[in-house]
Amino acid sequence: MAETLLQVRDLNAWYGAAHVLQGISLDVGKAEIVALVGRNGAGKTTTVRTIMGLIAKRSGTVLFDGIDLMTRQPYERFALGLGYVPEERRIVPGLTVRENLTLGLLAAHRGAAWEADAIDAIVTRFPRLGERLNQEAVTMSGGEQQMLAIARAMLSQPKMILLDEPSEGIMPALVDEMAELFIELKRGGMSLLLIEQNVELALEISDRAYNLDQGRLVHEGTSAELLADEAIRERYCGLITEHHDGA
Ligand SMILES: Nc1ncnc2c1ncn2[C@@H]1O[C@H](COP(=O)(O)OP(=O)(O)OP(=O)(O)O)[C@@H](O)[C@H]1O
Ligand SMILES: [Mg+2]
User: Fold this and answer.
1) In terms of residue numbers, what domain contains 111?
2) For ligand 1, atom 5, which residue shows the shortest CA distance?
3) In this structure, which of 13, 79, 123, 153 has its CB flanked by the most CB atoms within 10 Å?
4) Which residue's C-alpha comes closest to atom 3 of ligand 1?
5) Count of structural domains within the chain
6) What are the pLDDT digits (tens) for 179-215?
């Protein structure tokens, strides 16, 4: 594996009395894409929310670029270069696309000219957003909002982005485009922790994968070997049919 960027050790999290994460340890290297898969309710979202400092009751160690994150506020984690695309997108109602993008730059404090350049650069990459900069963001389609959430996370040029089901609700052609984008980001040196229901896609673009079940890691390996091993491939990709009622 590449030099470690994110090191998670013995992570535990609770919702009230429910012990939802039970000792998760994982690593993400520099310029590495790591997939986190598992059935509904396995604890994937809770894992990234805990890494971002959004779960009150937790224990364990999270080192990011050698810095202990557990004592830091969520905004500090963001400023240290840890981006996050949450499951529920968090597009701010009442704000235009441009204003939502600008929110992604607030913690960077680099001035209006720099912000304008960064937004120009991002709309070159996401032309659909460029056409809608002055539209109220929540009036865009689900797929467009998902693109906006990803664009916003990329704007501050983080070292790593945690992506919680970025392809959810997006048509296949756009999903392929998104996969290309992730590979491009990795080539540019960025690290990604990718939660995906589309396990086959996740394994195709990731370097390594972790399988989470009932708050524990039950399997891990390189994505190439998981895809190559028929039995494991079934076990991982079988998650897809379980999610979608065999449709
Ligand atoms: N705010 C909460 N309060 C109480 N329990 C919660 C809360 N959020 C999640 N849980 C529970 O914690 C467990 C893990 O949930 P989590 O959202 O992390 O799963 P997930 O792997 O992301 O699932 P999905 O694939 O459906 O998104 C589930 O049993 C869920 O019901
Ligand atoms: Mg989830």
Assistant:
1) 91-156
2) 15
3) 13
4) 15
5) 2
6) 999 999 999 999 999 999 888 899 999 999 999 999 9
Instruction: Check whether residue 26 and residue 67 sit in a common domain.
Output: yes
**CA diameter of the chain:** 54
Residues, beta carbon < 5 Å, ion ligand 2: 44-45, 87
Question: What residues are paired with 136 via a beta bridge?
Answer: 96
Q: 216 by DSSP, 3-state: which?
A: strand
Task: State the residue for tokens 């501050």.
Answer: 156
3-class secondary-structure state, position 80: coil
The CATH number that applies at residue 20 is 3.40.50.300
Please give the structure tokens belonging to residue 127: 């032309």
State which H helix or E strand residue 242 sits in.
helix 230-243
Question: Residue for token digits 């590495």?
Answer: 32
Residue nearest ligand 1's atom 13 by CA: 41
Tokens of 90: 């968090």
User: Counting ligands in written order, which one lies closest to the CA of residue 22?
Assistant: 1
Instruction: Answer yes or no: are the C-beta atoms of 198 and 43 closer than 8 Å.
Output: no
pLDDT tens, residue by residue, 31-67: 999 999 999 999 999 999 999 999 999 999 999 999 9
Identify whether residues 137 and 51 lie together within a single domain: no
Q: Do both 147 and 171 map to the same domain?
A: no
Retrieve residue 84's tokens: 């996050």
Query: Is 86 inside any structural domain?
Result: no
Query: With 70 as the cut, is the pLDDT of residue 127 above it?
Result: yes
